[in-house]
Amino acid sequence: MWRAGTWLSLAAIIGIGSVAHAQPPASSSKPAPSGCETAQGSVYFDFEGASRSTCYVEDDRTLSILVTPEHLPPINPSPWYAFRYRSVEGGKLTVNVRYMAARHRYAPKWRGSGDPAVFSVTVAQDKDAVSITLPPGEGVVSGQPLVTSGHYDDLLGKLAKNGKGKRVILGRSHDGHPIRAVRLGNADAPRLVVLLGRQHPPEVTGATAMDAFTLTIAKLIRSGAIDRTQFQFLIVPLLNPDGVARGHWRANLGGVDLNRDWGTFKQPETRAVADWLARLPTQVRPALMLDFHSTNRNLFYVQGDEATAHEKAFLAALLGGKETAFAGFPFKIEPRDANPGSGTTKNWFNTTYRIPAYTYEVGDDSDPIAVRAAAEALAQNLIPSLDLALKGTRDK
């Protein structure tokens, strides 16, 4: 049963067909960057995570928004939209969402009041637009559930408390937002695991996996199952706070895809992590890096032919043969050679430290319960896999 205040995903019931494309307004009409309204309905972009879209009035009960990337051309377009609306009693409100330089990716998620049976979605045949019909009332529509700064403040608090860790600020973004992290384990523990998330703002399913993964790690440290004298963790769940707050498709406020900035470190967010690593005591060395993302399916990008014996042993221990082991979360393993100069997190950590460095990708529409369960199971096996890989390569 649907209840007001819950998110309703329409991935399974989206109709494919034509959609009325919004036409440019008449010369007397001016676009309103903050939103638009009529006597019958309104759309606004005045909250954290809202897309920076332009809104046009087509008629009293039809509004259109143009969703544009923060820079061109976008890499792997992820057209993010999020808006709040109001629709008065007496009829439906239709919002046409048009994408610039992209095709439809995220099925609308609705949180609001009114009859859920009225909420319907039609995607254009060429997928460059989507028409959303909304019931009378108020609510929020977004490409994925909104996961913003308040969520991460709560998460970091839980991690620090459950894992007996310490919250730290690594640096600040272009907009002055702190790059927050938590450090679990002893500061002089020789092996460091780096966990990163939300380099790309819309990739919320990856954040779901990271939440479950890191909370499990914290519990294992607290219970003593992970030896805090041997392992420590740097957890940075929101590396792109500006992009998340401003509703970006992919980049930070500098207009840069952070997952292409590793090695050059021209952006303050990536530089904050690199500077923190550079200040580590000499006896502390990174042992593993996981970077959480979302894409169209569940998969892990791992080292390819360049992988060392230790890296191959770790892969076999953590993921090998488990592609269908987690109910509701089948995944693929995609080995890709580190490509020097590409600036990805995975490549930089592997090349710099010669360690396993994976991109942990979660499908856009993956079941959240299955995502969490798989992440918890992988976290449980993380340190045993590192230990087994190290022992195996030493014994050879």
Instruction: Report the uncertain regions.
Output: 1-32
Strand content: 25-35%
Q: Tell me the number of helical segments per DSSP (H or I, 4 or more residues long).
A: 8
Helix-strand sequence: EEEEEEEEEEEEHEEEHEHHEEHEHEHH
Radius of gyration: 22 Å
Helix content: 10-25%
Principal-axis shape equals elongated
Total strand segments? 20
* Average of the residue pLDDT scores: 90
Structural class: alpha/beta
Distance between the amino and carboxyl termini: 58 Å
Sheet with most strands: 8 strands, mixed
Tell me the strand order in the biggest sheet.
13-14-16-15-17-20-18-19
General description of the model:
The strands form 3 sheets. The chain has an 8-stranded mixed beta sheet with strand order 13-14-16-15-17-20-18-19, with helices on both faces. It has a 6-stranded antiparallel beta sheet with strand order 1-9-12-7-4-3, with no helix packed on it. A 6-stranded mixed beta sheet has the order 2-10-11-8-6-5, with no helix packed on it. It starts with 7 loop residues before the first strand and ends with a helix. The model is unreliable at 1-32 (pLDDT under 50). The chain is elongated, with a radius of gyration of 22 Å. The protein contains 8 helices and 20 strands. It has 396 residues and is an alpha/beta fold.
